[in-house]
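Journal club prep — side note

Before the paper discussion, L.F. wants everyone to see what a predicted structure for a comparable chain looks like in token form. Sequence:
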Amino acid sequence: MTGMTNFKPKHFNWRVDGKVAVITLQRPERKNPMTFDSYAELRDTFRDLVYADDIKAVVFGSNGGNFCSGGDVHDIIGPLFDKDMKGLLAFTRMTGDLVKAMRACPQPIIAAIDGVCVGAGAMIALFSDMRIATPAAKAAFLFTRVGLAGCDMGACAMLPRVIGQGRASELLYTGRSMSADEGERWGFYNKLVDAAALDAEALKLAHQLADGPTFAHMMTKTMLAQEWSMSIDMAIEAEAQAQAICMQTQDFRRAYDGFVSKSKPDFAGD
């Protein structure tokens, strides 16, 4: 295992608050667009988090009143016209690798969304484990509005699972913005909070998770991802095995001892 407390990325902002890593994108004056470099560095960072024993939860936050404006028109969209099919496929696979790495990292990821959250930014939010937003949050899967299909970075697989097939179809066909109220009502957002409270609410939830039985959280995240492709019987068996593993952890013993002694268990993730 390795530590990432002192990690210093070049293409996005990173800070650590206790056991929680906080990520925000750069260039708030342009509403935090993604670049080739930030895609790649974020992908590699979430891959490295698999081996980070000092980070127990991640907040992917907003910067300057916005979450992310998607791929940078000048740094990404324009240069794509100079790529051949092989180069284009390498790019689209890299963007998919980012959200695959987010799913595969063991830490819960909380997206804290304010303002613009579109394109690749909406996909980062979608592939986070939980989402907290402000009333000003506007999420849009606007790929069709730039002449592309709505099936980008796993949108057609994940969005219907979060908000339902019909609602996802509307957003992916039209590219229109989903209001914050719609997002909360449809289950995209776990809750809405005032902009002034967004960072604190996301950190509060992240610390609650980081102070909990983090090995068990990892197992929960793993099962949530893997059981999509299982039958119900297979899922029940997989969960039986996962729970039996968790019953061997010291955190399970700590919880029992705490219940007996009427004290709060001090979970350690082992």
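L.F.'s comment for the group: Strands lie at 13-17, 20-24, 57-60, 109-113, 116-118, 130-133, 138-140, 177-178, 191-192. Keep this in mind when we get to the figures.
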